[in-house]
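Bit of a strange request maybe. I'm writing a small parser for structure token strings and I need a real example to test against, not something I typed by hand. Could someone generate the tokens for this chain?
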Amino acid sequence: MSLEIVRSVAALRARVAGWRKEGIRVGVVPTMGALHEGHMSLVRLAQSHADRVIVTLFVNPTQFNNKDDLAAYPRTEHEDAAKLAALDVDILYAPDAAEMYPNGFSTTVSVKGVSEGLCGAFRPGHFDGVATVVTKLLLQSGADCAVFGEKDFQQLSVIRRLVADLDIPVEIIPGPTVRETDGLAMSSRNVRLTPDGRAAAPALAAALFEAATKLRTGAPIAPTIAATRDAILAAGFTEVEYLELRDAISLAPVDALTGPARLLVAAWRDGVRLIDNVQVDRP
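Reply from user aminoacidic:
Good idea to test on real output. This should exercise your parser:
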């Protein structure tokens, strides 16, 4: 099956309008490309919830607070399109920056609360960029459902909040984190690790899972997190940007497990910033 590539809002809406006349349920999977199996799992999940699936590919400049990071982000549209064609995706929507942010564009969507702390504290403006582009993609596609990965859990929380607050009629479906066989969460950034860094990187997930097990069995929170931070650094990570236990819904810090929580981390190795999180249920 050949993959249809659409590059304008008008063309995308025309295709979706045709599906609507047929009573077809539409799903969308927003991405920035450099697709790996984690993305493919989100596509398959969308296909299980919708009759037609749109995958978007747009490297969004407004969510990068580091120009070098934006410049280094891989652009692999040809390879991405081949992977999506193999999954029988219906449309690849790949607008350019001028289509997404036309001359005179001056609106920003900002989500308070869940965007604060964690990645929000270290990447100023990042979640404003995410919230703005995702709002646009949801409105451009008019999708009935949209799939986002749990690996970027704070991002998922921001999107859930903006959809609820702005009354956007779309169902947000979370996709479980997909991991390599050694436990490392799949990420487009993993290819930037050195061989030694890649060999050490699974220690991040291992430390999280060990901490989650301890917390579920009643271990005290603060000492457990401190020991986990030490274990990550001992594994060769140069910095633990944050390691926090947060409420799974509000993302508020928690000092007692009274409901579902998430243990979230960002750490650096080889100049690469890796994020991960695991669910922690109360004892």
